[in-house]
Amino acid sequence: MKINQICLSVDDLPKKWYNITSDLPEPLPPPKEPETGPSRTEFLGRTMIHECLGLESSTDSWIPIPEEIRELYIQAGRPRPLYRARRLEKQLGLKKVRLYYKREDLSPTGSHKVNTALAQAYFAAKEGNTTLATETGAGQWGSALAYAARLMDLECIIFWVRTVYDWKTDRRTFMKLLDATVYASPSKETKIGRKILAENPNNPGSLGIAVSEGLEYASQHEGVVYSLGSVLNHVLIHQSIIGLETIEQFKLVDDNPDLIIGCLGGGSNFGGIALPFAGEVLQGKRECEFLAAQSEAAPNLVKGEYRYDFGDVAEQTPLLKMYTLGHRTELEPIKADGLRYHAAAPFISALRHHNMVRAVAYPADERAVFEAAKMFFQTEGWLAAPESSYAVKASIEEARKAEKAGVEKVICMNISGHGFLDIEAYREKLGIE
Amino acid sequence: MKINQICLSVDDLPKKWYNITSDLPEPLPPPKEPETGPSRTEFLGRTMIHECLGLESSTDSWIPIPEEIRELYIQAGRPRPLYRARRLEKQLGLKKVRLYYKREDLSPTGSHKVNTALAQAYFAAKEGNTTLATETGAGQWGSALAYAARLMDLECIIFWVRTVYDWKTDRRTFMKLLDATVYASPSKETKIGRKILAENPNNPGSLGIAVSEGLEYASQHEGVVYSLGSVLNHVLIHQSIIGLETIEQFKLVDDNPDLIIGCLGGGSNFGGIALPFAGEVLQGKRECEFLAAQSEAAPNLVKGEYRYDFGDVAEQTPLLKMYTLGHRTELEPIKADGLRYHAAAPFISALRHHNMVRAVAYPADERAVFEAAKMFFQTEGWLAAPESSYAVKASIEEARKAEKAGVEKVICMNISGHGFLDIEAYREKLGIE
Question: Most buried in the list A163, A274, A301, B199, measured by CB within 10 Å?
Answer without folding.
Answer: A274
